[in-house]
Amino acid sequence: MKDTIAAAATAMTSAGIGIIRISGDDAVGTADRIFCAKSGKKLADCLSHTIHYGYIMEGQEIVDEVLVLLMKAPNSYTREDTVEIDCHGGVLVMQKILETVMRHGARPAEPGEFTKRAFLNGRIDLTQAESVIDIIHSKNDFALKSSLSQLRGSVLKKIQNLREQVLHETAWIESAVDDPEHYSLDGYGEHLSATVKGIKGEIQHLLDTAGQGKILKEGIHTVIAGKPNVGKSSILNALVGSQRAIVTEIAGTTRDALEEHVNLNGISLNIIDTAGIRDTDDVVEKIGVEKAKEYLEQADLVLYVVDGSRELSEEDYEIARIIRGKNVIVLMNKSDLGQRAAQENFSEMFSGIGFDIKKHVLLVSAKEGDGMEKLAERIREMFLQGNVTYNDEVIITNVRHKHALEQAAQSLSLVEESIENGMPEDFYSIDFMNAYEQLGYIIGESVEDDLADEIFSKFCMGK
How far apart, in whole angstroms, are the C-alpha atoms of residue 400 and residue 134? Predict the structure, then answer.
């Protein structure tokens, strides 16, 4: 934390501008040793949050013509003195400036070290720090909006409110135990039971958003399956909007899985196009079939493609048996050639698991593009109850947060058991404090150093 650190905050590539970021106690001094302002002023003598035009110098040699942004502590991202050098974009010029900065007082920043310093210096909590990397990796508008809301402190405020409620009751119990003359616990169990029920309800509401949060953040793990030559690769191409997969009239063209990410009207699909599932003596194709079955086991959604222009075969029924129990949307492809496969057959295939033909079967033509627009609607209904409108509700998108909330809820359940069993009030406060610590784990107040290191190691160097 005492070191002055520096890193490229933009990609090392050909671009209009590049940014080199410096932060630490000697950030201004380091910049002053290499920056020659056109005004002749030293940055140390300038006001915070000002921009200065000049040159980066290495001795008497001009390295680049730049703009320098000065942000003095504590009003900066890291709450340390921070200098950002806006230079010309390009690998060579950025590298030369970064090397010059290193030679005059800074060391290379570790991954995520700028954000880590913002966290350690109390500018942001751990949920806000994690939202930074989520914003960078956002795959759709809803994930981006959720991450921005978390960066503004939506999760922090909610967790703080829950902790305040827990701490208030814990303090009352401790006060009553220490000073029974002034604090009475008569009838307190009934009041506490209602309070705990309310807190647990708020936690459960957050946990109920975790499934949707995972989908918004990571996307739906989707597998396209079916027997050979039914148009699986054509379906993939139609979803991607380009000829991503090779399509021929020859059955078994697809031998290996092909992965693509698709943003389907705001819903992220991580799609895997698999080899056609059938019995085969071809060694290579057989490997592809086995891999297809493995992908199906891990799928959140199966797009089961059949050739609607032909009657269903035993292979179709066998594939249906493999994917029973999964979230399935049947795509009856080649509708432009006429329909011979009866939709009622799918009720028989998937009987007893709530399969609805109207919801789970779509007539499509990958060749003509017919019916594909209805797919996003069906997926919304299946995974998001038809609602993909972000309304500023706190949504849990982080597995770590979900686990801590589950642990806090479990501790509160133990409080309820103690109340029901008439246990001494000391028992309440023990479990209450466990819940308090678990909630603190989310925002980083009781996080271990190795976990913090792991979280920030996933960041890029300049963030």
Answer: 14
In the three-class reduction of DSSP (H, G, I as helix; E, B as strand; rest coil), residue 20 is classed as strand
Give the single-character DSSP code of 202.
H
d(CA 149, CA 166): 24
Taking the alpha carbons at both ends of the chain, their separation in whole angstroms is 16
**To which H or E segment does residue 37 belong?**
strand 35-37
Q: Which of 206, 173, 177 is nearest to 191 (CA)?
A: 173
| Helical H segments across 179-248, by residue range | 188-208, 210-218, 232-240
The maximal CA–CA distance of the chain, rounded, in angstroms, is: 88
Its pTM stands at 0.75
Q: Where are the beta strands (DSSP E) in 344-455?
A: 361-363
The Cα 463–Cα 456 span in angstroms is 9
- Surface-to-core class of residue 322, CB atoms within 10 Å of its CB (0-12 exposed, 13-18 middle, 19+ buried): middle
| Residue type for position 387 | N
**What string of pLDDT tens digits covers the 463 residues of the chain?**
789 999 999 988 889 999 999 999 999 999 999 999 999 999 999 999 999 999 999 999 999 999 999 999 999 999 999 999 999 999 999 999 999 999 999 999 999 999 999 999 999 999 999 999 888 888 777 788 888 999 999 999 999 999 999 999 888 888 877 777 776 777 777 888 899 999 999 999 999 888 778 777 778 889 998 888 888 888 888 887 655 544 445 444 444 568 888 887 777 888 888 877 877 766 776 777 788 888 888 888 999 998 888 888 888 888 888 888 888 898 888 877 777 677 777 777 776 556 777 778 888 888 777 777 788 788 888 877 655 455 567 889 888 999 999 999 999 999 999 888 888 777 788 899 999 999 999 999 877 777 778 888 878 778 8
Q: Which of 335, 217, 236, 241 is nearest to 276 (CA)?
A: 236
- Tell me the C-alpha distance between 356 and 213, whole Å: 26
DSSP 3-state assignment of 325? coil
